[in-house]
UniProtKB/TrEMBL annotation:
Belongs to the methyltransferase superfamily. RsmJ family. Keywords: Cytoplasm, Methyltransferase, rRNA processing, S-adenosyl-L-methionine, Transferase. It catalyses: guanosine(1516) in 16S rRNA + S-adenosyl-L-methionine = N(2)-methylguanosine(1516) in 16S rRNA + S-adenosyl-L-homocysteine + H(+). The gene is rsmJ. GO terms for molecular function: methyltransferase activity. It holds the Pfam family SAM_MT. Its main location: cytoplasm. Specifically methylates the guanosine in position 1516 of 16S rRNA. It is found in: Cytoplasm. It is an enzyme of class 2 (transferase). This is Ribosomal RNA small subunit methyltransferase J. InterPro entries: 16SrRNA_methylTrfase_J, SAM-dependent_MTases_sf.
């Protein structure tokens, strides 16, 4: 079901029309009383639960908030995801992130120098991500490299990877949605809203074979620590964090 989108700012009518035309969202003048909805305000596009104001809004903000903090004070190349894709010294592999979501992992990799192509099949996630990218290119700190290193292609990865005609990526990165076991504080608004919107990616196992056929160096799969390996295929190596592990398959 296409989500309703609300915008009451005349100066953003063109942007609203573009979003409606590109993604098929349904423009609404009145705020819905319940259910998931998109809101376009003066600054950004966000996803909200109209019936649960406490839940807050989800949007993509690469230039500020958690992404900025992580870029300036996180581990950079020391981050587990960077080690998992094999970023080392001056080596920054090209990465195809075939389950881009809100682009947080892709941004970490791009901020250390990787060129990341992001695939995303959910129109809502892709629209939020594109909105975040559009604002990031205008930012004085990160704008000069965002458009060079981060590219979004909307669509289903299994088809896009099987029909790939461009240069093959060195790494394919997969982080499909997996059901959460615990209601931890960490599984906060973003993941809860996303679970509500998308549910688990039941077909995720089917991504491993095309990923292994496409990557030239390795495939990396991010899994919760309690989840079995994707497609039940044992990995060649693993990197573990407190809550996750990165299963690595060498090509
Ligand atoms: C857990 S989220 C990814 C989070 C992301 N790694 C991040 O850092 O923000 C999984 C995303 O993958 C997308 N996805 C799952 N299977 C897909 C497929 N076959 N093709 C394209 N996107 C897919 C889902 O729509 C969802 O947005």
């Amino acid at each position: 079901m296409p989500l309703p989108i609300h915008c009451d700012l005349p100066q953003r009518t063109d942007d609203l029309n573009r979003l409606v035309a590109q993604w098929g969202f349904v423009p609404v003048k009145q705020l819905p009383k319940e259910g998931l909805m998109l809101w376009l305000d003066a600054e950004r596009l966000s996803l909200r639960d109209a019936g649960d104001k406490k839940q807050g809004a989800v949007s993509v903000d690469f230039a500020g908030g958690g992404s900025r903090h992580r870029r300036l004070h996180g581990g950079g190349r020391g981050e587990a995801v960077a080690k998992a894709v094999g970023a080392r010294g001056q080596s920054t592999p090209t990465v195809l992130d075939a389950t881009a979501g809100l682009g947080r992992d892709a941004f970490v990799l791009a901020s250390i120098g990787c060129h990341v192509t992001m695939l995303e099949r959910s129109p809502v996630a892709a629209a939020l991500l594109q909105d975040g990218l559009n604002r990031a290119v205008m930012d004085s700190e990160i704008g000069d490299w965002i458009s060079d290193r981060m590219t979004l292609i909307p669509g289903a990865s299994s088809d896009l990877m099987s029909d790939w005609s461009g240069e093959r990526p060195e790494v394919v990165y997969l982080d499909p949605m997996y059901p959460h076991r615990k209601k931890s504080a960490q599984v906060k608004k973003e993941m809860r809203l996303f679970q509500q919107l998308l549910g688990p990616d039941q077909d995720a196992d089917a991504l491993l074979a095309p990923a292994l056929a496409l990557a030239t160096k390795r495939v990396v799969v991010k899994r919760p620590d309690y989840a079995p390996p994707l497609a039940d295929k044992p990995s060649d190596a693993q990197i573990k964090t407190k809550t996750h592990r990165f299963d690595i398959y060498f090509c």
